[in-house]
Amino acid sequence: MSTAELRLAYERDEDGTGKIIAVARAGAFAGRGEAWFGNDLDAFLKELRSFPLSSEKPPMIEGGYYDGKGSLAECHVRIIVKPHDMKGTLLVHADLATLVQHTPDFDVQNCASIRFLTEYAELDRFAAEFGEMLKGRREVATLMGATS
């Protein structure tokens, strides 16, 4: 087993929105993405604190570029935490991608899908850090885990 982590930073804007900068690492694999979010982060935090987590509708945030119809056209950050087994182990799944506007061609966009395992106690600690980060009392929230 090797260590894994999801690190989130939050840059608040004056209009009530903010940018999440996500970095995930599992063993030798790593990725980074950033996206703007609104009050959906409060709902994500509430879902992270629920017990047990729902496998049908697990806590999830996703952000990036939306089309004119309100659908996500280009995902830069997607984070999902869901039950993994009957022992209470949780699966953290982070899809992270670079912004296409920062690359000369969509074909050279970098994407990473990072998955690792964690436990409810660690998720509870992360949720507390995440809440403090959203309030501006903390710069980073880190969820630790391990690869299998």
From TrEMBL:
<protein>
    <submittedName>
        <fullName>Uncharacterized protein</fullName>
    </submittedName>
</protein>
